[in-house]
Amino acid sequence: MPNCISRASRIRVKLLLDAASREDLAQCLRHALDKAGNPRLVTPGLLDTLVDHAGGNHRTLMAHAHELLLAGAEREAKQLDEQLFFDLFTPAPAERARPKPARVR
User: Which CATH architecture has domain 22-88?
Assistant: First the structure.
């Protein structure tokens, strides 16, 4: 039986997602921590900080949480807190003061 739809006329569907609410993001992270077996690994302050910096994006939330988990494991931390977040994600003073290169035309 011949293919009735040519390759050029296939319909593409794009799923548009709105930003997740703060509560949805917090609940997602709490659920992940519960399933991992350590619901108190992240302090409430860090949870709020992660949610604030995720910008409504689940992927960003989980990526930041992953980076924090790796850093916490390296430091053998029993609990992850806001200080670790700022140590990890705040640029060093030299990086902030570095001048931008001139544009070549």
Answer: Orthogonal Bundle (1.10)
Spatial neighbors of 22 by CB under 8 A, at least 6 apart, are: 51, 52
Using the Cα atoms of residue 32, residue 44, residue 80 and residue 86 in order, give the sign of their dihedral: positive
> Model-level pTM?
0.72
Cα 44 to Cα 13: distance, rounded to the nearest angstrom: 39
pLDDT in tens, 46-95: 999 999 999 999 999 999 999 999 999 999 999 999 999 999 999 877 76
Structural domain boundaries in the chain: 22-88
